[in-house]
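Handout, section B. The chain below has 242 residues.
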Amino acid sequence: MRELSDLIDVEEPAWPELRKVIDAAPMSVEVLPADGGLGEVSLLQLQVTARSYLGAVVLHCGGLLVDGGWLRVLGSPVAGSVHGVPSLARANRFPGAFDPAWRADPGLVVAQDVLGGVFVLNGADPAGHGRPGAPGEMAYFAPDALGWEPLGAGHSTWLTWLLSGGLDEFYENLRWPGWEDEVGALNGDQGLTLYPPLWSAEARQDLSATSRRAVPMAELLGVARDSVRQFDGVDPGFLGAA
């Protein structure tokens, strides 16, 4: 176990570098106010240093609302924030007090999108839980495919890619005309449910023709998990607590 001072007082902390990436992003990125105490507690539980992008996000911001809130990168928000974005600690059910035995296994939920997609940093044994990719690599639960996709990159590379324009490419086939207004009306703990469902042939053919409504993220993630169980007979595992 490393002490909090060892995790924070490091050479070349990542936040200044990450801040430059955020400021240069081709889409909107809102940096939410941070709860410093929650950030420190979360950093201690994660046992990562401020030299990492993960540590920088957790320690220095309440989360990132990317592209008008389409993607929510989880951090350490101030309690009662009007944005409603959950903390990384809450989304991953961190213990109430530091527990050296706790592990983010099979993985750590680091971001969620408005469609119920979930980005996870793989834990020590992702394959044992049916998740693709190696330990320390990012994986994505795709709500349109109802399954996990390996991203072949670590957390810092993934975050840099998304903030440098990769988000448009990644969601190219999952947006419809006017999505900006619908997403902008959501709170940070809400997502959009589609009918016909996102994974259906009808939705794939014409997303703009679907009906969409705002629902709590907990409901959206629960429906996705139940759908995987129903169709594939497998449990996709933990998708994050909302």
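Note. The chain has one domain: 4-232. Compare this with the example in section A.
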